Amino acid sequence: MTLQARALLTLPLVLLSSNLNAQTVSATFGSKYDAASNTASIFSNEAKVGFDSTTTALFALGYFNDGFSVATEAASITDSASLTTFLGSFNVLHSQSFSDATAAGFFTPGNSSIAEQGAGKDSYIMSLAGVTSWDQGGTASEIGLFRDAATFGTIPAGASPTPADYNIESISYDTVILGKEYLGESLTGAFAGVTGNIYASQAIGQAVPEPSTYALFFGIFSIGFVYWRKRTSKTVSQD
Amino acid sequence: MKYKVPTLFVGLLISSFLSAVTVSTDPVGFITLTIKGTDTSDGLSAVSVPMLSASLHSGVVYDVDGQTITDNNASWSTGDFATPDPNGNPSHYIEITNHSDDTKVGLIYEITASDGGNKTLTIAEDASVLNGASYTVRKNRTLGDIFGDANEAGLTAGSSSSADIIYKVGVDGNGSLAWQIYYYQEAPIFAGGNGWRQLGKSGSADMKDVGVFPDEGLIIKRRSGSDVSVTLTGSVKTSNSRTSIQTGFNLVSLSYPVDVSLDNLGLYNSDGSLLTAGSTSTADRIYYVNDAGQFDIFYYQQAPIFAGGNGWRKLGASASTDQKDSIIPAGRSIVVLRRDTSAIDWATNVPF
């Protein structure tokens, strides 16, 4: 065997269980572009304007405290005070302003040196409109909260010396706790020709309808929704 | 390729080009490696050892037979170059310095046996491609001669839970590649005494002669204290280098004591024969320990303009910011994550 084959190691990511060194995680999350389907996931405000340095927002990855009823508590966010309380139960692994978005709403933040925390817990991604840092979170005008079980799994344990990889950007999210999802949008502008899955935040205080409520309303508003999609899709494409 | 002149490397002093059959005088020099302390960083450093041990023999392969090469001008004795290190790994290697096939120049082979009477060396794999090649025999650098047999470098000594840690890649008890952890033990005799030790092995087993091959990197974790400087003297490599990047994590050294940019590393080209381009989740990666003692993760992005376009990118930075001029300083090592199941052949030409 050559030296290269022996020593230049096909090195599995070994998780050292000892306390020899700080265990870290590298994480990326948020937007993804899939060339095969020519589809991108995009994050926007309630008006479907993509977040960027102009339409400011914060993107955060984290997990909730044990025993915290996420759906129930999310539904009770009515103002800045209740939002602040809600955010107080959210443990942030990494947050980053959308000012680094490559196009309005397309943003994949990351951090390569996150100290191990929340291993084994379900993670969520959160958009907070109108703020650019976590300590401003309570003043956000809108909030989105999303998760995709298949992609996210659970937060991994850290590793050393190289960090454990937690790479969870996704084309779509199967759980929209706060905000709205618009799938299969035809996009223009920088995204010309690309199909967009838009994940919009919702205004603080806006009630979170129960699933049965969605079903009740669906028939009534379906025609209007199609019209609205056509009207607003151009807005998302602005960059 | 364009390289930036390093700030750490002082210079080549003597040059005597290798001839076919003689022991050569290598260019020699020194480099000072900085092992980051915790007062200014997270205490993590990744280093290369670009200063090699002196050439012990240079020659030409006159004949090959299986894993054995014959050099009619050999002057070694039986058993030379064949003493294993404390982990049972070969302590010496041959490096191909010239070959009619350029893709063989830079290859390194471990020496497992030697025969002075028959003027042969046995290497760890088939040697048939080496007929006519020029080669040099060298001994690996060791933990002892890098950091000092008695830890003259000044890393924090102590127990496995208090001493600074050196991570190296090796084979575990199951034959799998895994991180090995070394440290300088300071203990009473009944607890194993002073010396280099390996976590998981006897507290009295001396590991100062554990070899560090020239293409291997080391990662060092300081638990406390300030920066430590380690000055290495040795031979400077004057032939091209070649490193195989396997599937998974590869802790690899930079062969030459010069600063090099990502763009000039030679790890990516547009024909797809080297690192795989793509997104943060699909592209191969380069992990680099920065001056803060944290990993910067680079990858070659291939994406539409709205997603940041093509080029070297850094995880966590804007996906449209070109990182091609990011510098890997002399004396650092990198971790390369290869996702594809095929290995790639990373060739580096002499930069001076």
Structure in a nutshell:
Chain A is α+β, with helices and mostly antiparallel strands.
Number of helices of chain B: 1
Nearest-integer average pLDDT of chain B: 91
Largest interface: A-B, 48 and 59 residues
Report the span from N to C terminus of chain A: 54 Å
Distance between the termini of chain B: 10 Å
Name the shape of chain A in a single word. globular
Report the portion of residues of chain B in β strands: 35-45%
Q: Strands of the biggest beta sheet of chain B: in what spatial order?
A: 4-10-7-8-9-6-5
How many separate helices of chain A?
5
Helix content estimate of chain B: under 10%
| Helix and strand element order of chain A | HEEEEHHEEEEHEEEEEH
How much strand of chain A? 25-35%
User: Main beta sheet of chain A, described?
Assistant: 6 strands, antiparallel
Low-confidence stretches of chain A: 1-19, 210-239
For the sheet with most strands of chain B, the description reads:
7 strands, antiparallel
- Helical amount among residues of chain A, as a percent range? 10-25%
Oligomer: heterodimer
User: Would you count the extended β strands of chain B for me?
Assistant: 26
What is the CA-based Rg of chain A, rounded? Answer: 19 Å
Average the pLDDT over all residues of chain A and give the rounded result.
Answer: 84
Describe this structure in words.
The complex is a heterodimer of chains A (239) and B (352). With 239 residues, chain A is an alpha+beta fold. Chain A has one domain (24-236). Chain A has helices at 3-7, 70-75, 80-87, 149-152, 211-236; strands spanning 24-28, 33-34, 39-44, 57-64, 90-97, 110-115, 124-129, 142-147, 164-167, 175-178, 180-186, 195-200, 202-203. In chain A, strands 4, 5, 7, 8, 10 and 13 form a 6-stranded antiparallel sheet that branches. Chain A has a 4-stranded mixed sheet with strand order 2-3-12-11, with helices on one face. Chain A is globular. The termini of chain B are close together. Among the domains of chain B are: 57-139, Thrombin, subunit H (Beta Barrel); 241-348, no CATH class. Chain B has one helix spanning 143-147; strands spanning 28-35, 44-47, 51-52, 57-60, 63-65, 68-70, 92-98, 108-115, 120-123, 134-139, 141-142, 165-171, 177-185, 195-198, 211-212, 218-221, 228-236, 241-245, 248-253, 260-261, 285-289, 295-301, 311-314, 327-328, 333-338, 344-348. Chain B has 352 residues and is mainly beta. Helix content of chain B is 1%, strand content 36%. In chain B, strands 4-10-7-8-9-6-5 form a 7-stranded antiparallel sheet, with no helix packed on it. Chain B has a 5-stranded antiparallel sheet with strand order 2-16-12-13-14, with no helix packed on it. A 5-stranded antiparallel sheet of chain B has the order 19-25-21-22-23, with no helix packed on it. Chain B has 1 helix and 26 strands. The interface between A and B is large, with 48 and 59 residues.
